[in-house]
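Side project, low priority. Logging it here so it doesn't get lost.
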Amino acid sequence: MVITPPTGRSDGPADTVRTLQLPPAVELVGLVLLSVVTAVLEVLYLPVRVGAVPVPVGAAAAVLTNVGLVWAAGERTLRLTVAAAPLGAWIVVVLGCAFSGPGGDVLLVDDWRALALLVAGVVPASLVLGVLVGRAGTARAQVQRPTAPRAQSTR
C-alpha cells in the first residue's frame, strides 16, 4: 500500500511526491484485523429478512471480502500459511459467534444461513489459496533453478 500525502501545491510534472511504503508485516496484520471486523459484520447481517424471506446478506458479503482479503495477503507473501491468516481469523471469529455469550445470546443463527455463511466464506477463499499455492510454487521453481546443466553419463 502506498500512501501519498497531498502536497498542497501544483507545480506540474516537476512536483515531487513523497510516498510512504508500509512494511508487508504491517499490511498483513491490517488484513487480519479487517477480516475479524468483516466476520463480525457478516454474522450480524446474516439474519436480514426482506418481508418474510430470509436473505443471507452476510453470506454474499463473505464471498467478496474473504476472496479479496486472501488475495491481498497472497500478494504480500509467498508463504501459504501467512496468506491464509485472514481466512483463519475469519473462521475463528465466525465459529466463536456460535457459542453463547454471558447472557446466553448466540449471534450465529441456527438454520441454513449459518451453513451458507461458512460455505460462502471458506470455499471461494480456499480456491484462491489454491491459486496462490500454484503461483508460489512457480515463483520458487524460478528462483531455485540449477545454475549449471547436469552432466549426462556416457554408457
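Brief comment: The chain is about 55% helix and 5% strand.
Revisit when time allows.
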